[in-house]
Specification:
globular; alpha/beta; about 240 residues
Length: about 240
């Protein structure tokens, strides 16, 4: 695996890397707007909207590889069940929100409500069945999230949740939000931790993209029957032990 630095910092880069990063940004915007407009008829059905999201995210992955030299290796597929499951993934950049659509067969994301307000893109997220959560609405929002997540799991989807609730740079840590513990106890499906290193190459907010290989690593399912604190501690320990 190629890494820009052992300390996850950003070393001095050439003007070529900067130019490719800006070129990627331009291509990303053109591809996003063009796909969103051309695929508007797919909003007639949830499956159509999900197909459009897959098309868009697949194109984003192609652009990343072709323009800025960022590839992705996926490890631990043997830990993914054939049916419904919950993916408890680290979240370091926007890359995983794109690439997981081509890594998983039927992904549905749990995301903060503000994301579905993005013009046009939010329409696709809503129509495709993404589960949005209003973090300020308390227990009512949690119950609504659990109902929607269970419906997605009953339909055979993989529900993707980011336990920290936001992007966290490599080497940093934030408390896990209560949603992952509620999903674990409420939904009788495997919970699969997923470690990654995307933040090394694909910054949280920066334009600069560093060429290299991003790794997604699926880990064995968490054991069932753990109490809340024990479950959260086990999840964190496994993800941190697998840090890439």
């Amino acid at each position: 695996m190629t890494s820009p630095s052992a300390s996850h910092g950003t070393p001095p880069v050439s003007i070529g890397v900067w130019l490719r990063s800006w070129l990627y940004l331009f291509a990303f915007l053109v591809w996003t707007v063009g796909t969103a407009i051309i695929c508007l008829p797919t909003l007639l059905t949830p499956d159509g909207a999900l197909w459009a999201v897959r098309l868009w995210t697949g194109g984003v992955a192609v652009l990343a590889r072709a323009i800025v030299g960022i590839s992705c290796r996926i490890e631990g597929r043997e830990h993914l069940p054939s049916g419904a499951c919950i993916i408890a993934a680290q979240h370091q950049s926007s890359f995983e929100t794109y690439r997981l659509f081509t890594a998983l067969s039927h992904p549905i994301f749990i995301l903060k409500r503000e994301l579905i307000w993005i013009p046009i893109i939010g329409w696709y997220m809503t129509r495709a069945g993404f589960v949005s959560i209003d973090r300020g609405a308390g227990a009512g929002a949690m119950r609504k999230m659990l109902r929607k997540a269970q419906a997605a799991l009953d339909a055979g989807h993989q529900v993707v949740v980011f336990p920290e609730g936001t992007r966290v740079l490599p080497g940093e840590s934030r408390p896990y939000r209560p949603g992952i513990a509620a999903l674990y106890s409420h939904c009788a499906v495997p919970v699969i931790p997923m470690a990654l290193n995307s933040g090394v190459f694909w910054g949280k907010t920066r334009i600069l993209k560093i060429p290299g290989e991003i790794v997604f690593r699926f880990l064995p399912a968490l054991p069932r029957g753990l109490e809340k604190d024990e479950m959260l501690a086990t999840l964190r320990a496994r993800l941190e032990a697998a840090e890439l």
